[in-house]
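U., I forgot to send this yesterday:
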Amino acid sequence: MNYMYGAMMLRSICRLRKLKNIYNGGRCFVIGNGPSLRHEDLRMLAGETTFACNSLIKLFDEIPFKPTYYFAQDNHIILDNKEYIEKLDTTCFIKAHYASRYHIPGVTYYKMLFPKSPIGFSNNIADVVYSGQTVTYSMIQFAAYMGFKEIYLIGVDCNYSKDNSVITADSYFDKRLFNASRTYAAPEVDTNLLAFARAKEVCDKRGVNIYNATR
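Result:
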């Protein structure tokens, strides 16, 4: 198992290194799953470079374009959507922690660290990606590494509908993204906001503009 994990990570590191500045000067769209997102918004993204994540994968057949990249790093999200990920024909990135448990062929894994004070921002995703307690933060780090100069966030509401501190289906733009059979952990919104502030600080210095195009 250790040999298989090592070989898998070596392949992933090689793939990640090849992403450095491949979109030098371009623009991309990072898609969240928030309730402000509309199907009309997704139709307008045809032809753009897009980063999609989490349970949005369940609706890929209904989206009028194939997202360029797909991300998942929450263990429950990965296991809930494993059958969709296995059939995915777009580039897929998944957090390496517990990667041997998933064993999904063709996936590229990235190593993640979880420091909260201060929150890091990766200069090299082949070495490490820092957690901001949201996959959106990871996608921003990937986009910056890939050389994008304009990063647009859409559907990143940064607020949630809760019942006794538990997320409800109203936190998603389409209720089919919600799995009623499991309990969703309460999001760490304060940490999310600190991570986004860190992303802006670093990207401003690099001449990378991040725009919140969320409704």
